[in-house]
User: What shape does this take?
Amino acid sequence: MFEAKFQTFKDEGDKTRSAARLKALRAELARQELDAFIFSRADEHQNEYVPPSEERVAWLTGFTGSAAIVAVLADKAVLFTDGRYTLQAKDQIDANLFSIEHMVEKPAAKWLSENLPTGAALGYDPWRTTGDGVERLEKAAKEAGARLVATEENPVDAVWRERPAPPLTPVVLHGMKFAGEEASKKITRIREVLAKEKIGVAVLSDPASVAWTFNIRGADVAHTPLPLSWALLPREGQPQLFIDARKLSNQVRDALGKLADVREPRELEVELHEAARGMSVRLDSVTAPAKLAGIVEAAGGAVSKGADPVTNLKAIKNETEIAGMRAAHLRDGAALTRYLAWLAREATGGKISEIDAVAALETFRRETGKLKEISFPTISGAGPNGAIVHYRVTEATNRKLKNGELFLVDSGAQYEDGTTDVTRTVAIGKPSEEMRERFTLVLKGHIAVANAVFPEGTTGAQLDPFARRALWEAGLDFDHGTGHGVGSYLSVHEGPARISKLGSAPLLPGMILSNEPGYYKAGAYGIRIENLLLVEKRKAGIEKPLLGFETLTFAPIDRRLVEPKLMNPDEIAWLEEYHAQVRAKIGSQLDANDRKWLDAATAPLKT
Assistant: This one.
């Protein structure tokens, strides 16, 4: 029997209690002399995944999606989310209490400017709102003739009587075997960036930056091995690390004590005020809460907005990290191939559900003996559910895999030596000609990115059209980016680089990104093909040095969905060579039955 240990399928939202909770919140707003309050699904670090103690949106509204902002006024309340979650929001919230707005088409700031009463006091939590976020709220309040108020106590927390305690999971050292560089050398490199940019001290508000810098990992949030923490890294002098001492064993404390002054998180405000005196202080524009800017300015320091100096250093993997990622992907590719072989044997009879499929894939990964966690909740979409880009199966939405449909599975794993993210779309039974045509158009885009050769300085925005050209020529497209950065046993979504229309950061050797074009026919099926790519140097061009990609992911692409007549010889050659590498690299990790299936699944196309 297969089992999923790292993902649940219950709809954890509970809208039945929203009315009483909303009433209590409004009473608390009145007590704090606030006419409105706005908050998002965010913790103090703006993490992608947050601990249960930070799930304020779900507690109040019942909505469990990852993109959410809530505004509560005396006479109305609204939930803002994006296109991935509008259907989910309608199911999870009480429409008599909350209206739903699209956060892109009607941003929260715009809505507030139109709905705040003149003279109203709009509250926000300065620990869970970024500086840019405050600027947008200030503009909205001014346009409405209202005023913005930073709360001393979050009003939701004041009425959330059963709020869980913050996590206290143990911190572990991420040794040289996996990190490839001593923390002391990383600190030296960070200081070189500070000197170059004339910054006196950097605040590391992103726990991933702290984890990378000090070579530590944790488990305070789901799916990403982060210890919730902060750090102050001055250009000169001893760094300070702010982390709950209860998470530290004697061994870890001793190791960290050689690198930094280890303090409790509650001491951050006082120490930042001291460190900021007369200094230029770098605050990360994406993760730093507005509260920190206020502390710096009160101390007479100057806020330097931008990316923290770790962001770019962390994105460029060293040789140890690259070797680890290669090893992790071979291990993961074998597990995924075993899963695909199992799926081919079991799925055609209509016996397998989306939840069964998730549990099976996680089980195959656990059997590697190396799995630490999944890197995100598995997207397991059968038929029309596959057309929901960020679909998450629950007991209420669970669907059988049926003949004549497509099944999309987007999943990833966390191993100590690397993080994986891979999507495969497979036919259950015989696919239609339309499915094969559109799958092939997606595959052509995937191959175009994988084969891309480009000069140094090229950005993700410049490569994004490679993935879309074949779809565009057919009048089709997909409404998400082509790729995102990936961490090394860190976040599966890592900046600064991405392949998308908004990807402004240059791609540099050592960066790892996903390559995942897709196509989605609402109410029918979804298609996505995803591998991870390593940016590498290629031979020098006539005038400029050139870069390209090494593919890291190895698992079969469903040949039954490929229409060779739509592919040119170079594209066919890429697919045949890719499948030859799959056989060579992971075939020896399979038993005889699965190896036989793999050989058939990667046999040359009939052109």
